[in-house]
Amino acid sequence: MKKLDRFLLRSFLRKGRELERANKELFLQPVPNPWIEASRCFTFDSLERDLVDARKLLQWPEKTLAHVDARIGSNRCTLSGTSLRQFVKELFICLGNHSSKQGESSDVAQDFGIEALRVLNTQIRLSEQTSKTMSNEGILVVCTPIYTGTMSIAALGEKEASHVFYYRVVIINTSKERVQLLNRHWVFASTDTANGNRKETIEVGKWAPGIVGEQPLLEPQQGVSYMSHCKLRGAEGVMSGAFQLLCFSNDKLFEAAVGETPLRNVQFAVATSSSSSSTPSV
Q1: Which of 51, 130, 172, 210 has its CA 20 to 30 A from that of 78?
Q2: Nearest alpha-carbon partner for 108 in 61, 76, 153
Q3: Which candidate, 69, 249, 23, 268, places its Cα nearest to that of 166?
Q4: Domain limits of the chain?
Q5: What is the CA radius of gyration of the chain?
Q6: d(CA 104, CA 101)
Q7: The predicted structure's pLDDT at residue 171
Q8: Residue 251 — pLDDT band, cuts 50, 70, 90?
Q9: Residue 263, helix vs strand vs coil
Q10: What is the overall mean pLDDT for the chain?
Q11: Whole-prediction pTM
Q12: Which helix (H) or strand (E) holds 133?
């Protein structure tokens, strides 16, 4: 193994150890993109989407896809520190064996490793502001907000500029029952960065109907994602909430909570729409 290959492998292993020490898991996901996702509802087959996201995010070399499908796809795009370390070792061994058999250089491993480290750093930053909650009924809710800047006082007609947070919510039905998402409840709170006290609280009361105007049906292993936004006077805060769903097999209403999710003044690079250079409307 070449010197750069060894450096890349050690860098990955170090990231895995950091996750282990922090007792964290990575939920692999694209960076939320308001230009594409805002105010839209997407329904998907969760198992298929897991594999697509896992394959796309790190641009795995073709010869490693069997490892990707087995390792990540079966864990719903979630990697613990231990899994990450073992997975990366397998990938580098796989790439090294292939290069030796084909008489190739290790450029494939190096190109993959350099880009994958960049993406991994982004995923770790995203995980720091992502909540992942599983209900007793088997409804998985993943919430990831991103900060998109401030709106001017003149634009809002207010005394104080507002900080805008977009948040993507992914809801996956991991149960064997057919369910329908009926209503939502949200609480957004900005905090004073000086003392951590709450500065402002905005609530979407129980129960506001649907999500972005829809009440989607979710078959077993089906999911839905949508993106909305909130405006707060503080540049830091927290959000939490719940969804109300109906189980068709017993006509039972139940709730799927959204765990407390940090709203951070951290921006991510996202691709804007090629047809528009303006910011997403709020």
Answers
A1: 210
A2: 61
A3: 268
A4: 3-33+46-127, 131-263
A5: 21
A6: 8
A7: 94
A8: very high
A9: strand
A10: 77
A11: 0.79
A12: strand 131-134
